[in-house]
Sequence to fold (267 residues):
Amino acid sequence: MSTYERELEVALAAARAAGVVVLRYYESDTGFWEKSKDNPLTLADLESDRVIGEHLRAAFPKDAILSEETVDDPSRLANDRVWIVDPVDGTKEFTKRIPEFGVSIALTVRGEPVVGVILNPAAGCAVWASQGDGTFRDGTRVRVSEKARLEDAVVIASRTEISRDQFAPYDGWFAELRPVGSIAWKLACIASGEGDLNISVAPKNEWDVCAGDVLVREAGGIYVGFDRTTRRYNQPKTLIEAGMAAGPPALVDAFLAREKTRATQLG
Fold:
């Protein structure tokens, strides 16, 4: 029995139950409103959050939960075990009927991500991992790409960041720059070898990336900041403002080395 077998089973069950809810809304037209500029919220987010919370609290009543759609409880900072949840990551894609979003559930223990599940209900696909046991996509073990050269790499990145010309500094660096929606889904794709490298330059929150971090690590990759730091989760400030890169270690290292040279030349 693996260390986190029960936690993974509960996370998968919660994600699948939430996925049923999210898919029901996806196939209808429920509308949305904005929490803040360019930050939509739907009934699917709220109901998915409720379903996930019910599953996690029933199974692990002593654990804390940090979720995008639940008011933060600072007592989580004193808890060794914290679930980090995004009930619908990629709500913009969801509202536009682009099937690149996901339910994202992770468990951290003393800041270390140890269980991750990302389920894309529109694609009918789930990717999951637990510490030391590898990453699986619909039951088949997967690994990150074996690419090591930037010029050979397919980079999957935010279509919003691409549209804002935030990748202009990297023009010509890669074989392909491919727009994909949710960061959680992007990380699930990297862990599955669908794309070689993910680069994100805009801020993101812990709930956006924690589960994907587990998937990438257990698939043989790394997920680090442009300064090569590894994220410790369940921080008082959940916003991650630094650029981040995910993929096979050699490819991430190649990008970070070239990015450091570029930044140095800019002064």
